[in-house]
Amino acid sequence: MTLKIIAFVLILVGAIINYGAKLIVKWMNLAEKIDAKEAAELTGEEFEQYKLTKAIARVKVAGVLIMLPGVFLIFYTFR
Q1: Residue 9 exposure: Cα atoms within 13 Å on the Cβ side
Q2: Do 9 and 79 touch, CB atoms closer than 8 A?
Q3: 10-50, pLDDT tens digit by residue?
Q4: Taking Cα atoms as reference points, which of 49, 67, 47, 69 lies closest to residue 59?
Q5: DSSP readout, 24-62?
Q6: Residue 43's pLDDT is what?
Q7: How many domains are there within the chain?
Q8: pLDDT value of position 42
Q9: Domain encompassing residue 16
């Protein structure tokens, strides 16, 4: 029973992080902390959009990595 609860909590937290990635990036100002040396040829607005997109992608990956153990626990407990 506790494994099911842990699994659902992990899935829920990962999904919230994944769907709220843009809000999390803006709230924590993560786009300013992104190192984007590979995009030096972009103009000012394109560069800012690139950093925002890169920060959102990193937060979404973190959300998926949190959600993944919950999915595996669901498969394990309901087999």
Answers
A1: 6
A2: no
A3: 999 999 999 999 999 999 999 888 887 777 778 888 888 88
A4: 67
A5: HHHHHTGGGG---GGGTTS-HHHHHHHHHHHHHHHHHHH
A6: 81
A7: 1
A8: 80
A9: 2-77
